[in-house]
Amino acid sequence: MLSIKDLYVNYGGINALRGISLNVPDGKIVTLIGANGAGKSTTLRTISGLVRAKSGSIVWNDTELTGKSIDSIVSGGIAMVPEGRRVFSDLTVLENLKIGAYLRKDKEQIEKDIDWVYSLFPRLKERSWQYAGTLSGGEQQMLAVGRALMSKPKLIMMDEPSLGLAPLVVQDIFSIIRTINQEGVTVLLVEQNANMALKVADIAYVLETGVITMTGTGAELLSDPKVREAYLGKSN
Predict the structure, then answer these.
(1) Quick one: average pLDDT of 145-172?
(2) C-alpha to C-alpha distances, 188 to 13, 108, 154, nearest whole angstrom
(3) Which of the chain's termini has less CB crowding within 10 Å, N or C?
(4) How many C-beta atoms lie closer than 10 Å to residue 199's C-beta?
């Protein structure tokens, strides 16, 4: 389980996170919703070691993560799918996937996991020798998720996976999130598409200007009038 307590993060004098606390239980889908600038991406980047916390605690399966290197966090079972996909455009689909396994030494199992990723994303198998930069936005997002899965994470964090994608592709991405979770991977999801995010979430948090203002099950927040007005539109 991931447990965050009283986490403070400053960006050049701005208080990006102001003492947030949240839990991500094993085997669950947990989502953070909120407006732009609320601190959602900062939360993920701090967990992954890309951003340093000013104070507070991030504990993953009894291990304190604050101050640890990115490599040690990844090898400890946490992977991130960054906002904007960030695939290596001049490398093939297969090469991108192999980069996701760069810390692993189990070559035979790596090959099996490539096949597993291809079973999740058949389109990636069809395009295995194609350069990632020539893929569609939806295919690049699938590749970014597949690359993260190649590190064999127990927890996968996704930053805005539906951003800029067509509605039908968004449906595919959320279906894949459910499938990954059913395969035993815990999911921490940051997503501006609050409607879709809350529908898949076991637990949800609302983040506003660096503070958690609401928490509940996905269904509870989906039906909450304040959440509906702020993030779903009155007519939804």
Answers:
(1) 90
(2) 27, 29, 11
(3) C
(4) 14
Q: In what order do the strands lie in the sheet with 186-190?
A: 78-81, 155-159, 186-190, 29-33, 203-208, 211-216
Burial 73-101 (b: 16+ CB within 10 A, else e): bbeebbbbbbbebebeeeebbbebbbebb
Residue of 30, 130, 28, 29 lying closest to 20 (CA atoms): 30
d(CA 222, CA 206): 11
The predicted-structure confidence for 98-140, as pLDDT tens digits, reads as follows 998 877 778 888 989 999 999 999 999 999 998 998 998 889 9
- The token pair that represents 112 in the structure block: 């099996």
Contact yes or no for 137/169 (Cβ under 8 A): yes
Q: 77 near 153, Cβ under 8 Å?
A: yes
Bridge partners (DSSP) listed for residue 55: 8
DSSP assigned state of 165: -
3-class state of residue 140 by DSSP: helix
Query: 60 pLDDT exceeds 90?
Result: yes
DSSP state of 132: G
- Tokens linked to 87: 């695939």
Average pLDDT for 230-236: 63
Residues 6+ apart with CB under 8 A from 74: 48, 103, 151, 153
For 45, the token pair is 């980047």
pTM of the model: 0.90
Whole-number Å distance between alpha carbons of 184 and 186 = 7
